Amino acid sequence: MKTGEMTIRIQFDEMKSVFNRILLKNGFSVEKAETCAVIFAVNSLEGVVSHGVNRFPRFVSNVRDGFVIPGNDPVPVKQSGAIEQWDGKLGPGPLNALIATDRAVEIAREHGIGMVALSNTNHWMRAGYYGWHAAGKGYILMGWTNTDANMPAWGAREARLGNNPMVFAVPYENKAIVLDFAMTQFSYGKMETYRMAGEKLPFPGGFNSSGEMTDDPSGILEARRPLPIGYWKGAGLSLVLDILAVALTGGRSVKEITMTGTEYGLSQVFIAIDPNHLANFATLDDSIRRIIEDYKLSPPADSKTAVRYPGERIAELREENLRKGIVVLKEVWEMVSGLESY
Amino acid sequence: MKTGEMTIRIQFDEMKSVFNRILLKNGFSVEKAETCAVIFAVNSLEGVVSHGVNRFPRFVSNVRDGFVIPGNDPVPVKQSGAIEQWDGKLGPGPLNALIATDRAVEIAREHGIGMVALSNTNHWMRAGYYGWHAAGKGYILMGWTNTDANMPAWGAREARLGNNPMVFAVPYENKAIVLDFAMTQFSYGKMETYRMAGEKLPFPGGFNSSGEMTDDPSGILEARRPLPIGYWKGAGLSLVLDILAVALTGGRSVKEITMTGTEYGLSQVFIAIDPNHLANFATLDDSIRRIIEDYKLSPPADSKTAVRYPGERIAELREENLRKGIVVLKEVWEMVSGLESY
Predict the structure, then answer these.
(1) Which residues of chain A register pLDDT less than 70?
(2) Is the pTM of this model over 0.90?
(3) Residue A142 carries which DSSP code?
(4) Which of A52, A210, B133, B135 could bridge across to B176 with cysteines, CB 3.0–4.6 Å?
């Protein structure tokens, strides 16, 4: 995204404080407002403005409309061995997801592996956040969420699948390898960012209303026909992740979420693994380093594209944006600031 | 694939018997020969000839060359809570993977979830087989393997990533939802099948030696530049799956496998979940059925492509091929038959 007339830079602390004050006015306790403000601000800091500052106004409006209930906490439904099912009670998605991640980590500490399946929760904003969080504590995390229907099955016209984002995170030295991806080639948030910036997608990302494959984000957003990653493979994975989310949580499916007209009451799965339980724990960083070093030896196909591992760019952006401030569309920041007085 | 001059149909029992006799001549015990013959024959029966009958001669040659040691069994290295690490001792990949799946299932029965991480094993042929196996016993399975390097990083020219196939399986009524996919848009096996049949791929599947994206399987196989699913996403997932496979097993990485020149000594992960531990166990089939029914309502984009769930076509092919015989390239069947007298 070009900085310039349309964008400004906001310092991390300022952004977090603005979020915090708005959340306090909207029924969040002091502690919850702070945690939630941190998550939205960190997502923005790490370059994922689509699920940070850009999404914040919609989050607040979901709170005001009663779809997200800031006073509610997740409660355990069933515990059995190393798996637990929790009911999110429609509390704030980011807070519920953080609690579920921490609980999966605790189970993993005891059993080596632990799963928390969370029903009736809300949009967690960004899968990667929970990956970085778990990895920061030294744990491996795999997790996914379902969403409302926003992607057609392969060979179909109508959006009946979610983009169901997934995260894989592995602790590595004092950082992490974190892969966070939706089943659409471009997430809706990303396509909205391109659209707001008036840019085309770098590759075809879906079909427009005339059924043509296109790199125009507006056409794809209008037709709601984003391309699944790997065509039939990503469409299949989306279906399987929804089936697993529903089976493991006992919560709502993509279809049931979609029927209500607002994306709330989601189903999410968190699986943590504690590397301390492994025989090779002492040499983990060395073996990961050898893989990364080999990976980085790949000669680039052209001078424009650097060969990076998942999460590497995030760490760079975090540094850069902490120093310079977070790039935000002026129009978005005005909308957010407006929420303070409303 | 067109049946006709180039192909014949072989009955399942005949194929299995031929495999069995060849394996007995190559150091397999009676029991191991039978189990291994079943896996190769079932893979073929279920339409995955690329990792069934087509691959059998290479498997036998790996046995003869000492890369696959039919007398060796996997042994436990470390057990801790619900996770176990095993050493595959370079035994036959399909047998090792079956044992690991069964062991993950046993751990899941006790703890709700169970993981087996298997080092020093060999090519498991087809991820889906173990998914069907676990689902047939009523368990959810997630698993993946690393491979030799056969796919470039995104933005790179040189193959330093594996296609690292992954499986997700969910029991459903008396069948299963099974998704089995490699990180390449088309697996090497599939591209070889197209090439042997003299056909183009249905979509561009990689780059040729001139760096052009192409649907010509020969050009892609020659350049070893298959397209990752979802471009950078599938490339990232491949890297993460290798890192996880190595971290969890303590075994060899894609790089280390590739350095030896022959694809052996792989690292694999099997995670099983026992739905019996879930509060909603009694209604699982109902909730999956509702998802599948909604999915099947998707209006097809054209008359050529049916909207199917992962595993649906497999069940159909199994029936059809049991009745009519398995379609095999004559050239392949002659090669297999030739192994009987060698």
Answers:
(1) 1-4, 303, 342
(2) yes
(3) E
(4) B135
